[in-house]
């Protein structure tokens, strides 16, 4: 007798924790993920600024799940879901395949939102993938190298100006780390430039940094950024981005900021798969493409399909949608697994999903962070220690935790950065792939075209001679 089949799309926090919670359940799980690793996204900015290696925040999925026998890991991007036939259509490297399911967990994470200006992505990478982080690392460290070669003061200043768009946790952390590089790690290493003269500009359309943390912590964070030399431009809207600068509109009017290195840390949206699944299931989505789900995280009319984390829109106790943070995905994954297991054991379903807010944290610089946990508001060194402990706890694998702590010690206690290697390929590969295309898709298209082209049959000489008479 065939066991219950669970398909999981996405190996982020939601998908991975759901799979782990089903390790003893009588199910066969198929995990579909576009990469071979699980990404600890909150620490991407530390990869981009040379604190950590990509391997420390992205352990291989197969290694993470090697002791769980009821999981089949498959590499590929889910393209669409047939909710009637209960089939997921997947595009893998050079091969298409399908996965049938009895229960489906959709937890494909989020993509960067440029608010309708997707061309900004060409010049201001986001912070959603290892590729983004490695590209930014090459651009950030490369900017100092190229500035050192310039003889024109204006060109030098342009290379030493770094603009971070978005004053949420990712933007604040990114701006803080670039400032640490410029003022603490790199001085004394260049003959023709002083890295301390670099400009780090943090831009946001709203009127506060870390605006979800409350006025008290927002003010503390703003003060610390100013002490680090970060220029904070609030109530400032980005209207255009190009190779050599960024255009903004503020209370001062229209301005251009010449800069060769821009980082986009503003706004997220659900991936296209969310809208496809919603359309197939007859469900609704919000403006960010997230699926409006039932209180048990299932899609209306389809109790066998769960949407988790950044893929879902579910109102919290305050009436606002739950935030797109790791804890929402983790708790959602555990809850979905519990629902599936209780169904299989013919036990009453658990009550509606209730999110337990464990708080929010953001680092600003070494030894300085802000933390909002319940009614507790912390800033400074103690908040920073709390941030370290929490992030080490949620890293997957003892080896990753150990090496991460070692690299943090090198970076925060000393003046070095463990991961400063950056290549030209990392800086330009994304644009080249966009222009050149996916090689697997090109080969596949060529093979399909060849299969549809009729092969001319060679005529017998006598028949050809008769035809010419």
TrEMBL record:
Kindly list any coiled-coil regions of this protein.
none
Q: What is its EC number?
A: 1.6.5.9
Q: Which UniProt keywords apply?
A: FAD, Flavoprotein, Membrane, NAD, Oxidoreductase, Transmembrane, Transmembrane helix
Q: Does the keyword Cytoplasm apply?
A: no
| TM regions (residue ranges) | 381-398
**UniProt family annotation:** Belongs to the NADH dehydrogenase family.
- The protein here is known as NADH:ubiquinone reductase (non-electrogenic)
């Amino acid at each position: 007798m065939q066991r219950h089949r669970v398909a999981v799309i996405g190996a982020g926090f939601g998908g991975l924790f759901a799979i782990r919670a089903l390790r003893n359940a009588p199910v066969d799980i198929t995990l579909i993920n576009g990469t071979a690793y699980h990404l600890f996204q909150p620490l991407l900015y530390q990869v981009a600024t040379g604190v950590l290696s990509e391997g420390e925040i992205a352990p291989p999925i197969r290694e993470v799940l090697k002791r769980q026998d009821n999981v089949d890991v498959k590499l590929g991007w889910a393209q669409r879901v047939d909710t009637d036939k209960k089939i997921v259509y997947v595009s893998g490297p050079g091969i298409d395949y399908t996965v049938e399911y009895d229960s489906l967990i959709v937890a494909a994470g989020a993509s960067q939102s440029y608010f309708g200006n997707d061309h900004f992505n060409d010049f201001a990478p986001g912070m959603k993938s290892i590729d983004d982080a490695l590209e930014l690392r090459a651009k950030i460290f490369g900017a100092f190298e190229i500035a050192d070669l310039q003889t024109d003061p204006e060109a030098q200043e342009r290379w030493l100006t770094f603009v971070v768009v978005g004053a949420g946790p990712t933007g604040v952390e990114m701006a803080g780390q670039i400032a640490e590089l410029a003022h603490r790690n790199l001085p004394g290493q260049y003959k023709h430039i002083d890295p301390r003269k670099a400009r780090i500009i943090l831009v946001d359309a709203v009127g506060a940094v870390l605006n979800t943390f409350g006025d008290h912590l927002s003010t503390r964070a703003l003060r610390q950024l100013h002490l680090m030399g970060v220029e904070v431009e609030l109530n400032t809207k980005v209207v255009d981005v190009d190779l050599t600068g960024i255009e903004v509109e503020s209370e001062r009017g229209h301005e251009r900021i010449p800069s060769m290195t821009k980082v986009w840390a503003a706004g997220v949206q659900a991936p296209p798969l969310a809208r496809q699944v919603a359309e197939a299931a007859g469900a609704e989505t919000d403006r960010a493409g997230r699926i409006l789900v039932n209180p048990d995280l299932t899609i209306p009319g389809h109790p066998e399909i769960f949407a988790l984390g950044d893929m879902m829109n579910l109102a919290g106790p305050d009436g606002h949608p739950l935030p797109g943070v790791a804890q929402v995905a983790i708790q959602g994954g555990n809850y979905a697994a519990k629902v599936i297991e209780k169904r299989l054991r013919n036990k009453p379903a658990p009550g509606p999903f209730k999110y337990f807010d464990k708080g929010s944290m953001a680092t600003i610089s070494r030894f300085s962070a802000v933390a909002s946990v319940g009614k507790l508001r912390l800033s400074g060194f103690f908040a920073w220690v709390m941030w370290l402990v929490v992030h080490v706890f949620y890293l997957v694998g003892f080896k990753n935790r150990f090496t991460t702590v070692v690299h943090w010690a090198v970076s925060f206690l000393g003046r070095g950065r463990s991961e400063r290697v950056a290549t030209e390929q990392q800086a330009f590969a994304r644009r080249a792939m966009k222009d050149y295309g996916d090689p697997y898709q090109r080969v596949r298209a060529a093979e399909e075209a060849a299969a549809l082209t009729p092969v001319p049959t060679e005529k017998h000489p006598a028949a050809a001679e008769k035809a010419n008479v």
